[in-house]
Amino acid sequence: MYPKVTKLIDAIDDVFTSKAWEPQGQITFCNLAVKDVCQRLGYSRFDNMLANDMVNYMEYSDEWKEVTADIAYMAASVGYIVLAALKSSPHGHIVVIRPGEKVHTKKWNKKVPKCMNIGKSYQLNIGVNWAFGGEEPKYYVLLNLPVISVGGDSEKDSEKDS
């Protein structure tokens, strides 16, 4: 397994098992759980954002790229931070894609990636179909985060080249 995949799985599992973001009645914390995973992996641009704000940010940021479910699965499988999200009113929903085998969903008649779903339900390693009800989410991959660079420490590597 790639070391970056292990870091990604550990960050997801640590956030999930901390139970810090369990729902409190009707109040849910998907945005804070996703922010927590991202921060553990070195990405900290989601401060003070709800799920809809996070989606708006990713849609217009050069740091994120919208991809298909298959690309999302492949990117998470090699250690990239991948999020799945849907905007809604008054609040959207956002999850982290977790490396692992895809699962088939009859609802969408295809295989989908698994995720950490923290919202009305609190679930780990489930198909994204269970996290989003009827509509398939959009998938976003974080590009060029140093924690996911290939080949070691990018800062040290660039010093060697000079």
Can you walk through the features of this model?
The chain is an alpha+beta fold. It has one domain: endopeptidase fold (from Nostoc punctiforme) (Alpha-Beta Complex), CATH 3.90.1720.10. It has 6 helices and 6 strands; from the N terminus they run αααβαββββαβα. The protein has a 6-stranded antiparallel β-sheet with strand order 1-6-2-3-4-5. A hairpin with a 4-residue loop joins β3 and β4 (110-118). α1 runs antiparallel to α2 (30-40). The radius of gyration is 16 Å and the shape is globular. Mean pLDDT is 88; it is low at 146-162.
Topology:
Blueprint: H1 3-18, H2 30-40, H3 51-60, E1 64-67, H4 69-77, E2 82-86, E3 93-105, E4 110-118, E5 122-127, H5 128-131, E6 138-142, H6 154-161
Antiparallel strand pairs: 1-6, 2-3, 2-6, 3-4, 4-5
Helix pairs in contact: 1-2
